[in-house]
Amino acid sequence: MVMSKRGFIPMFISGIGYVIGETFKGLYRNRWMCITSTGVVVVTLLMLGLFMMFTLNVGHITDTVREQVEIVVFIDEFATSEQQTELGRKIGAHQGVAEVHYVSSEEHMSRLRPQLGGMLEGYDSELDNPLLASYEVKTVVPETVAELAAEFGTYPGVSNVFYGKGYVENLFSVTRVIQLVVLALMAGLAITAVFLISHTIKLTVMMRKKEIAIMKYVGATNWFIRWPFVLEGLFMGFLGAVLPMLALYYIYIHSVEWVTVNNLLFLSLLPVEQVMIELAKYLVPLGTILGILGSAFSMGRFLRV
Amino acid sequence: MVEAKDLSMRYTKNGDNALEDVSFFIDRGEFVFFVGSSGAGKSTLLKLIIRELIPSEGTLKIFGRDVGKLPRHRLPYLRRNIGMVFQDFRLIEDRTAYDNVAFAMMVTGATRREIRKRVPHVLGLVGLQGKGDARICDLSGGEQQRVGLARAIANRPAMIIADEPTGNLDPGTTLDIMNLLRSINLRGTTVLVATHNRDIVDKFKKRVLYLDGGRLVGDEQKGFYSHVH
């Protein structure tokens, strides 16, 4: 039998050098096409990264606001101290409650003083204080405030209950809509990225179809042909993810600076490191996998020679 | 070495036969011309031999193995024993002559040392001493075909298949290339050449297989192109 086959190990070892050499030669020879492909990955992942940054921060701001949502249960001015204690115990024992904090009428007054200043003159003595003592309640699930507020309103010794009715419901529904819209946009963008990248890599492979056909004629195995392309795809995908990460880093640093300079502290943005780690977790593997799959699948048709 | 038995090939299910009931046997070390007009089936036959196509009917044995039943993953190992020479050379144009030949050895897993030793040797055999560093696009047609020949013999194949190897060359260069093929054959390599070149077939007086409309219409030792035409 003339059809000889060299040992796998020596071929594998001599093949590694070949594959790595061919990868970099291929990148250099087809540099313009590679720059185009990488550019497509950079632009799509940059867009995706911007959306991710936005979603992460919308989520963070929502969480911050959610944490601040609380129920204020005002205690009836005629409630006895036993009734007050019993009310505090009952609220605290409720399974939907995370934290209960008693605020005396004096504390309410001292909180108001810096805001209202001179308007509170004449209310200095304890007997003149018109404010009611209250329990400030944080719930386990912020979305349950309305339900719990209604329940606490029925407890004995309660004057009234406040939880920012209307505002809280709106906040939850608006942030939910924003998150859904951004998620849909991100999914759309990711799908577009897959098409764009695989199409661009297909063009790169098509330009080299003659080379691939020659490889087949001289007896190259499919994987021998495929590896340099796959590594090129990996390299382009990785670079296509790292470059937008650098751009996103500068965009984010400037956004945080802008928020600080303009004193928009209610927009509590996530720290730079945390955002970059989150982005790297998704963008780098996504870019690399897109590059590899784009190359590997684009070749199929040209390998059938 | 090459044994065809009732070989037929159709490109489409209900189309005409590109080859019909072709049977022949080619022994090791032979030099054979396939002649016939365009569409006679010469290129189809060569494509079947390198398993670029799979026969519709009949069997084709290469090195004793039925190529129609050869699993796809074994195909590269068949092709490493067949050197291919094409009318349009099919070289990688932005690389050097050396790279094109080295590349064919690289895919078989040859070591760098083997390649460094063998490539200048085969370039010398085809008359391209000192031209290893020349880029393909800077070489003449004849020189490019010599690189094609060097690439075909680099892995010491048992058989060379040349499809119109001189179709794009002037008469002087044509003769040089055919003489090279003859010298390769004299070293024991089987050589199959599909050609339209009447002068060459008549001059070489080798075995000729005549194809017409997909049928084998003649098989002559020391034949002439004009014999049946």
Walk me through the topology.
The complex is a heterodimer of chains A (305) and B (229).
Chain A (H helix, E strand, L loop, with lengths): L7 H22 L1 H38 L2 E5 L5 H13 L3 E7 L1 H12 L17 E6 L5 H9 L4 E5 L4 H41 L1 H9 L4 H40 L10 H32 L2
Antiparallel strand pairs in A: 1-3, 1-4, 2-3
Chain B lengths: L1 E9 L6 E10 L4 E5 L6 H8 L7 E6 L2 E2 L8 H5 L2 E5 L10 H10 L5 H14 L15 H13 L5 E5 L7 H16 L3 E6 L2 H7 L2 E6 L2 E6 L9
Parallel strand pairs in B: 3-8, 3-9, 6-7, 7-8
Antiparallel strand pairs in B: 1-2, 1-4, 4-5, 9-10
Helix pairs in contact in B: 3-4, 3-5, 4-5, 5-6
Structural commentary:
The complex is a heterodimer of chains A (305) and B (229). In chain A, 71% of the residues lie in helices and 8% in strands. Chain A has a four-stranded antiparallel sheet with strand order 2-3-1-4. Chain A is α+β, with helices and mostly antiparallel strands and 305 residues long. Chain A folds into two domains: 9-65 and 170-303, no CATH class; 70-162, Alpha-Beta Plaits (2-Layer Sandwich), CATH 3.30.70.3040. Mean pLDDT of chain A is 81; it is low at 1-10. Chain B has 229 residues and is α/β, with parallel strands linked by helices. Chain B has two domains: 1-12 and 27-81 and 158-229, 3-Layer(aba) Sandwich (Rossmann fold), CATH 3.40.50; 93-156, no CATH class. Helices cover 32% and strands 26% of the residues of chain B. Chain B has seven helices and ten strands. In chain B, helix 3 runs parallel beside helix 5. Chain B is globular. At the A-B interface, helix 1 and helix 7 of A face helix 2 and helix 3 of B.
